[in-house]
Design a protein that fits this description.
alpha+beta; 8-stranded mixed β-sheet; 19 helices; 31% helix
């Protein structure tokens, strides 16, 4: 296949055999039966002459083929074996609204790191932010604002490879590990201090290489303590940020090079030419619930981060032929409630040092309530369970059951120690100290008896009563025979009235998106880079399966730099 990035070969025409069955099979899957019939009619096992200077059928164009592409094939383009431009490419405008060297989409840690790196290399940069200025920062701003770095490169590669569980190639693992090793030096140059944090150090100690993990913060976690000084560095460099400017489509040349982006500003199309490259740093698909159904192992799951993460970057990259990876990997632990006043924003919920259990829709316990979450990996296999006999996710949602002792123990909303998560940052809601206001609102369901509570939850009263009685017997014996919950946490649920909260898994973020290589170039399904298109951060994250706390922030900062360095090295488009 002749690609724009390859050196021209000989101009002499040559005889090339055509595998008509392979073409037929691929087109059947992508363009529809009508197009395939036409292809089969035109393509035979006969040889045909194809001049080397001709652009032959492009595999990525097939992948992006639609019914319209099939119609074009039927009209006769297959006879010549040529597709002159990508099937779904957005046409370049007659006039650009703006021209820069690098267009960056997103103002999270990845976007800020990319912008700083590109600007420091002399590039003219613009950042597009989907939301208004008050809500900028993506997941990064409202995250724990911690990161981790390794003490040893070979151990780092070993640990990241183990975390990825075979789903991330070694080139990417090596690139990430090498950049993480240099991360604190880069932050130091920006005046951001790396203070030892100590938690999640490591989060998976049983994995090889885990001893290398060190976690850091900039004088404390949460509260935007990493994001805020990075944003100040962008401001210091006078890098332009355009707010309320959602990116809508990538502009692709016939050569398949990405030439810019179409955004929307004040409700109108706004075209920005990228002379060197576009870097997508616009997060995952936590708030696209239809995409959840197609890719996640269970749904719905609710995000703790920005509601702006609706899979925009994934769709834009797909439209120009990107492969996807890690789409089934949400960081999702149990512990959030969703109420009409704030839906789909999740409210973090937790009970500490008081009696409670989790039960499914049938009123049965299904796991140790004290099982380590490990950013969701420790518990998601229990929560995202589909009962094929019943035909339902019986634990999505589940119910947290507790009594008056727990209700009076203190507020049941978690995350009061600093600003963490979108609800804490932007809701303006103050949870009552004794949970009474939330009971009145119906967020917490109340029953004078277990039977009454069960009826309000749609659970058979006798089933919930059996579960509670069995649990209370375990508390008396200080042994949990079913799930081995630690004995110090076995506190009986016995003081009426009784309460319940409908609880969902909550995501920190998704990890899936366009597949990228070690240079952060977006790859097509055949392992070839899409020219001048890069991603950074959680959009197509390197974290393939398991996760260590602080890993996404570290990756954002590292991949933002990697993408920017490679982008600015490109020769400018005419």
């Amino acid at each position: 296949m002749y690609r724009a990035s390859q050196k021209p070969r000989s101009m002499i025409a040559r005889v090339e055999p055509i595998n008509s069955f392979a073409i037929f099979r691929r087109t059947l899957a992508i363009c529809g039966i009508a197009a395939c019939v036409c292809i089969f009619a035109f393509q035979t096992n006969e040889e045909r002459i194809v001049p080397d200077k001709q652009k032959r059928i492009d595999r990525r164009a097939f992948l992006k083929g639609s019914a319209a592409a099939g119609a074009a094939v039927t009209a006769g383009s297959v006879a010549g074996g040529l597709i002159t431009e990508p099937a779904n490419a957005e046409a370049a405008p007659a006039k650009w609204n703006k021209e820069v060297d690098v267009v960056i989409v997103g103002t999270g840690h990845a976007g800020l790191a990319a912008a700083i790196t590109a600007a420091d290399s002399g590039a003219k940069v613009v950042i597009l932010e989907k939301l208004k200025k008050e809500w900028e920062g993506g997941n990064s701003k409202v995250s724990g604002n911690m990161w981790w770095t390794p003490t040893d490169l070979p151990q780092a590669k070993q640990y990241i490879e183990a975390l990825s569980y075979g789903l991330t190639d070694k080139e990417c693992i090596e690139a990430l590990a090498e950049e993480m090793l240099k991360l604190n030096d880069w932050l130091d140059k920006l005046g951001i201090k790396h203070t030892p944090l100590g938690i999640f150090q490591p989060e998976h100690p049983e994995l090889p290489g885990a001893a290398c993990v060190r976690t850091w913060c900039n004088g404390g976690s949460s509260d935007g303590k990493l994001w805020i000084p990075l944003r100040e560095q962008v401001e210091k460099r006078k890098i332009e940020v355009i707010y309320e400017a959602p990116a809508k489509a990538l502009i692709q040349k016939p050569s398949e090079e990405i030439a810019g982006i179409r955004a929307e500003v004040e409700g109108k199309p706004y075209f920005i030419k990228a002379r060197k490259a576009v870097i997508l740093c616009c997060g995952g698909f936590e708030f696209d619930f239809e995409m959840q159904k197609q890719f996640l192992p269970g749904w719905p799951i609710y995000g703790q981060g920005t509601p702006g993460n609706t899979g925009d970057g994934i769709r834009m990259a797909q439209s120009v032929g990107a492969a996807l990876w890690h789409m089934n990997n949400p960081l999702a632990g149990l512990g959030g409630i969703v109420v009409p006043e704030f839906a789909p924003i999740v409210i973090p919920f937790g009970i500490y040092g008081a009696p409670y259990i989790h039960v499914d829709k049938l009123g049965k316990r299904f796991m140790s309530e004290n099982r380590p979450s490990r950013h969701g990996f420790g518990v998601k296999e229990y929560i995202m369970f589909f009962d094929g006999v019943i035909g339902d996710f019986t634990r999505l949602p589940c119910f947290t059951i507790f009594d008056e002792t727990a209700r009076s123990h203190g507020p049941l909303v978690s995350g009061n120690r600093g600003k963490f998560g979108w609800f804490s940052w932007h809701s303006g809601y103050e949870w009552s100290k004794d949970n009474s206001k939330e009971i009145e609102k119906g967020w917490i369901v109340k029953g004078e008896t277990i039977a009454e509570l069960a009826g309000k939850l749609g659970i058979k009263p006798e089933d919930l009563e059996v579960t509670i009685n069995h649990y209370n017997e375990s508390c008396k014996k200080q042994v949990d025979p079913d799930f081995n919950r630690p004995k110090q946490s076995l506190i009986a649920i016995e003081k009426p009235p009784y309460y319940a909260v409908k609880v969902y898994p909550t995501m920190v973020n998704t990890q899936g998106g366009p597949r990228r290589n070690g240079k952060c170039q977006v790859m097509d399904p055949f392992g070839e880079p899409i020219p001048r298109l890069y991603t950074a951060g959680e959009l197509g994250s390197f974290w393939g399966w398991m996760y260590n706390g602080g890993g996404n922030n570290a990756e954002c900062l590292c991949t933002g730099q990697i993408a920017a360095r490679n982008a600015v090295a490109m020769k400018s488009l005419a």
